[in-house]
């Protein structure tokens, strides 16, 4: 069945795949087949098929289309990595249950199969794992969670001339390297920098807005990039940055910058910490008895364990790139499976990751081959609807994608921007 027709079957397929169960693992050599998030068994594909070419030669079809995924399953990015793997697995299962991907070169449908590696949240291990996967006859690379591992991965992909797709990274600078094999349909720093102010202005009457802004930026390329863009955007929307502090990732004691924010009467705190750093910041804020009226926590608040912080973590706004309330075709199927397996609506990164599988399947079918260059060119020409919305890539590999904002309200992630049907209201003040 052609990939372009696959997604109309999602409602039926959801009933089939809901019976499958997933499990978490830190095994760095596992694969994902037609059921389960990470298993040690591969998809049952049957025997290879042979196609006779016009010249009389035989072309033996591979057992599957292999996708090389390097994702943090341990280390500080493991919480986000688990969402990435889940999203990949759900949509691989959907494609395979619908018959796989038609490849004209072999005149047959082939299943997708993920070869999964754990980089332990270490960019050096990302590089090593990707070099190893390059010898596994993969068609594309699938990236992990957080900009540091993507920065390592995209460089390897470019060197090996194998297409690389990634979400859960907002670093715009990666798209300014002239890379030809990197595609990322995910909001970037310029989008995040402005959307928070647009949402505040649309949601809160003038005169009641939290106009005194504080920034906690980690001392990384992304921290520098987004921190500067927040500084630039704030006055354009009627806000004043009264505090801009930087810290080293892995810092244990944030007391000093928290007290500075309190002394500066910060009303809107913007930050982009790793999950461990974000937990420390907000835990210590609670211990010091301070919580600003508004908080945007990019990345750290995406993980389900954020709810463990209790009241001090409640009310924060996320910029995670996706929410099941967006209503795009196919969302209901993955959301239903997530509820049945995880006991909650689909986590933010699940949908964005799932969209990459849709994009890959569509590109391979249009390319008609598993050749890296042909698939890369087909990816560049993508124009399709996904569970994350419509995707058309710019020349730099970015896409004009939605940047929804959600808020943790009583343990539930509620879509608050854009104000589409079914979206909730921003709870303000949150303290």
Structure overview:
With 431 residues, this protein is α/β, with parallel strands linked by helices. The chain folds into two domains: 3-187 and 324-400, Rossmann fold (3-Layer(aba) Sandwich), CATH 3.40.50; 189-318 and 406-417, 3-Layer(aba) Sandwich (Rossmann fold), CATH 3.40.50. Helix content is 33%, strand content 18%. It has a six-stranded mixed beta sheet, sandwiched between helices. Strands 12-11-13-14 form a four-stranded parallel beta sheet, with helices on both faces. A three-stranded antiparallel beta sheet has the order 15-18-19, covered by helices on one side. A hairpin with a 2-residue loop joins strand 16 (383-386) and strand 17. The longest helix is centred in the N-terminal third of the chain and has 20 residues, at 78-97. It starts with 9 loop residues before the first helix and ends in a 14-residue tail after the last strand.
- Protein structure class: alpha/beta
Question: Which runs of at least 5 residues are low in confidence (pLDDT < 50)?
Answer: 1-48, 52-57
Relevant CATH superfamily of the largest domain: Response regulator
What is the top-level CATH class of the largest domain?
Alpha Beta
Topology readout:
Blueprint: H1 10-17, E1 31-32, E2 50-52, E3 58-60, E4 65-70, H2 78-97, E5 101-103, E6 108-110, E7 112-117, H3 123-133, E8 140-142, H4 147-160, E9 164-165, E10 182-183, H5 189-203, E11 212-218, H6 221-233, E12 240-247, H7 255-263, E13 268-271, H8 275-287, E14 294-297, E15 317-318, H9 331-342, H10 348-367, H11 372-380, E16 383-386, E17 389-392, E18 405-409, E19 412-417
Parallel strand pairs: 4-7, 4-8, 8-9, 9-10, 11-12, 11-13, 13-14
Antiparallel strand pairs: 1-7, 2-3, 5-6, 15-18, 16-17, 18-19
